[in-house]
Fold each of these.
Amino acid sequence: MKIGLYFGTFNPIHVGHLTIANHMAEYSDLDKVWFVVTPHSPFKKKSSLLDNHHRYQMVDRAVEDYPNLRASDIEFNLPQPNYTINTLAYLEEKYPDYEFALIMGEDNLKSFHKWKNYERILERHHIYVYPRVSEGKIETRFDNHPKIHHIDAPIMELSSTFIRKAIKEGKNIRPMLPEHVWSYLDEMNFYK
């Protein structure tokens, strides 16, 4: 089975994330997509993050109606700060019958050469890239790379940062969130 790993803080998960993940599961050779909720990215400030448990709960609720999507808290018990290479090694050991691939936006591919052990990741794993509107160029070493697949997914210009700010300003952003996520955020009074 081929599993696409979609890493993120998902703070909160929104319809853009779901659309991309579902597109990958339906229109690529990936069998399933796991949303890997990251406790803390080495590239992000931690202050604005909701608790790990709450972000995992929202992802779990968001994917409950999608059989090819699932929430994963696999990184919660790994040493911090965690790097993708370590998570991949752990998953390969835990699930030897699965083949794991990465899902990332074009913007992340532009900085992929800065990731810890990125060459090793590319040796062992395929990368599925979805389009993003962003500045800068992709490293030429990644042009036509046999393990990097550009998927013609919808371009989603929606961000968790925008959603958090809109909630704080009292805007109605309900259509941007899966119904179960909206209910959870509203009930818990998050981001206000």
Note: The helical segments are 15-27, 52-63, 84-94, 106-110, 118-124, 160-168, 179-188.
Amino acid sequence: MPTVTGSFAASFSASFSTAAAFVAGATGYTGRAVVAALRTRGVETVAHIRPGSVNGAEWRARFEALGATVDESPWEPAAIVAALTTHRPTHLFALLGTTRARAKREGITAPYETVDYGLTKLLLDAASACGHGPRFIYLSALGAREGTSNPYLSVRGRLERELQASRLPFLIARPAFISGRDREESRPTERAVSLLVDAALRGLATAGLSGPQRRFASLTGRQLAEGLTALALAARDARTIADAAAIRGAIPAEQA
């Protein structure tokens, strides 16, 4: 299975004019940037919003202003299969995730198992059942490994295994930190750690060791979205894994 680990020159084999995307997790930090990146490229885009979302009207207006279609299908197997059958996306972006703090506010127990894995698995099953085999773009994480004591990384490792066992074309993205000043949701600890790691990596790069910075430096939501979108659209039928260096290397120069 091809693993993309370095710089990437996009030779787009799939025409943007024939691509259509369905973005699950569209209201998240990365998701909203992916919707914008897709629309900038002229890709027909469906942004999925959780039904009953408190800010649903605001998100609908925001996405429709970009020219995207909004879908509010409930998170039920038959409903998601129906949505994918109706919209027939060539590319399905799985950008789902939550935090312990948010899960506590919403009364969700075992958040990583319930949301990060459970909803993504529902989406994967729907993609396999919808009949037209969209490319499944899965936002995983650096260090994802099934069975690790870290539940965040463990559920992603499990989903990666199940995705690779499917017959779908896919792109598995494994960035390190996803962080930026433009992140609306407050994550002070994560932000502080990412800043410290980035500073250390810059120090290594100054000393002539640039490899770690390419592989482990944080990405903003916009950077991740631009690289992820470019990689996803470049090879519609491929089954690949991309690290942070590949994602950063895929960002078009005009979007960097």
Note: Confidence is low (pLDDT under 50) at residues 6-15.
Amino acid sequence: MERAASLEVGELTCDSILRGRLRLWQPVVGYRFSIDPLLLIDFVSDGSFGQVADLGAGVGIVGLGLARRFEQARVTLVELQPRLAELSRRNIVENELTARCQVVLADVLSPSTKQVLPGGSFELVASCPPYYPVGHGGVNPDSEEAIARHELRLPLPKLVAAAKRLVGFRGRVAFVYPSPRLPELLTALGEHSLPVRRLRLVHPQAGEPAQRVMVEAQKGYRGGLVIEPPLYIREADGRYTVQARRALGEPD
């Protein structure tokens, strides 16, 4: 397992987000988080969450952001890449969340992981999963960034199946995903009996096609689908919209 050599301070940045409520170490080179996980944190419905899981946690942004938002939640960050898992641990300490957050270094699809993460253990499972199918663009399949961005180790149908196993009855799952792949996401959720409650499209700016979609589904849900107003990220002059600043935890 790589640790000290790959975690030197000079190879990392420590970035403050959510109005300074969260500080996260992440690599200078390699996989760095975008605004998508911040949008997902904001999108999740309010609820009384005791146990929360972040699948494919990376450096922990979704899970730790949810821990900040839901002060009673105990959060498990699941990550299969050792360096990113180690950064998640560092970020738990950095943000003084050791009492409520833990890291599980594991492949969520491995049969042995079921012993560490029993089925039905969580009220909420959230994920900002790999976006791109295998064969989309040239990637080095051994690189940390490729595994984080491409479905080399976590194909969408298997991710949804894992999420369904982990949530209890009435438990929720929340994803942010490329909007062109929305039909695949809805199909996977339907095939695993996770009815969609809420959906919101994210556009770069007004008049442009959506690039992302946020979806919240719930095991055992029998109500109708709510399609929320679209979220526009930037004004024509490039500034964040008021909607986006609020979602990103920035001042209006």
Note: The chain has one domain: 4-247.
